[in-house]
Amino acid sequence: MKFLLYGANGYTGQLIAEMAKDYHLTPILAGRSADKIQPLAERLGYAYRIFDLKDTAALDAALQEVEVVLHAAGPFVHTARPMMEACLRTGTHYLDITGEIAVFEMAAALNAKAKAAGMILMPGVGFDVVPTDCLALFLYQQLPDATHLKLAFVPLGGGGGMSQGTATTMAENLGSGGAIRRNGKIVPVPLGHDALRLPHEGKELLAMSIPWGDVSTAFYTTGIPNITVYTGVRPKAYKMVQRQRYFNWLLRLPFVRAYVKRQIKKRPPGPTPEQLEKGTTLVWGEVSNAAGQSQRAMMHTASGYKLTAIAALLITRRVLEGADLQGFYTPAGAFGADLIMEIPGTKRELL
User: Fold this and answer.
1) Alpha-carbon gap, residue 113 to 327, rounded angstroms
2) Predicted confidence band at 160 (pLDDT cuts at 50, 70, 90)?
3) Cβ neighbours for 140, distance < 8 A, ≥ 6 positions apart
4) What is this structure's pTM?
């Protein structure tokens, strides 16, 4: 049950490495920085490899040692392609924890090559997009002729915010706006162009539209042609987002993004262990069809980073156990709507 964990020194990569033994898995820890990877490997008792993704010989050699790579080094818009191409060369199953629409579309375009190589290409095996992907399929099963899908998630309970890696990925996309799927195609829209209110414990939670991975993946999972994804936001923050569209040009300037990235490096690497345990996530979804029928469902599950580590390890184990799959897949498309129910503490209900 050995696999390569690339990017093991990042916040989420380290969390995955620390939890691997709980799932009877043995990662080979890998990354570019020996001064970060080696101490982690020695503390956890794992083998390690040090190489840059630009070093194709070292990358291919490392992949030839394993059947599966779990790629955890973002921003994936820069790192996914060299890893995917190496997996195609070596026939190694590819998993990652991205939530970036461009990466999902890149993987989908490589479907035929992945099938020819006899390997699995499955990005998004973490919080982005396992819970929402599973809820999308669950709702589709209730209303198979659905034409519209809305998905939303709201972190609850003081989960500690985002990691440096997640924040850096967001910085890469500053000023880029949002995206939805309309009539089967992904189209750009202003960030927060739509909003909805979700009932929760006698209150209403505000959520705004964002370019989340399900804009890509839910289409491949369900075939529903119109998809919008939302996340929880405070009213004051939402007003700021609506004003942001007037100076997106400024946010796209390289020196602005570079400044934001420098500030991110000054922050804590991610939530504390206590915050990981305390935090939970509300996931909500709605499908509707041309006849005006609709169905809604809601889930409560673990905090984002804890869920990412568990889901990534569960899927890695399934692939290592011999999942009979070849080509591009979404998590729910491969393993069904009930995959999310394997995450401890997950509760799901039709509304």
Assistant:
1) 8
2) low
3) 146, 149, 221, 222, 223, 224, 287
4) 0.92
Locate 221 and state its tokens.
């999972």
Local structure of residue 246 (DSSP, 8 states):
G
Pairing of strands 26-31, 2-6: parallel
- H helices within 10-110, ranges in order? 11-19, 34-44, 56-63, 76-90, 101-109
- Helices vs. strands in the chain: H and E counts, helices first: 15, 16
Task: Report in angstroms the alpha-carbon separations of 137 from 54, 143, 329, 330.
Answer: 37, 10, 13, 11
Q: What mean pLDDT do residues 218-228 have?
A: 98
Token pair recorded at residue 95:
């998993």
pLDDT digits (tens, 9 = 90+) for 202-214: 889 999 898 999 9
Among 258, 280, 294, 312, smallest CA distance to 23 is for 312
Read off φ and ψ for residue 84, nearest 5 degrees.
-60, -45
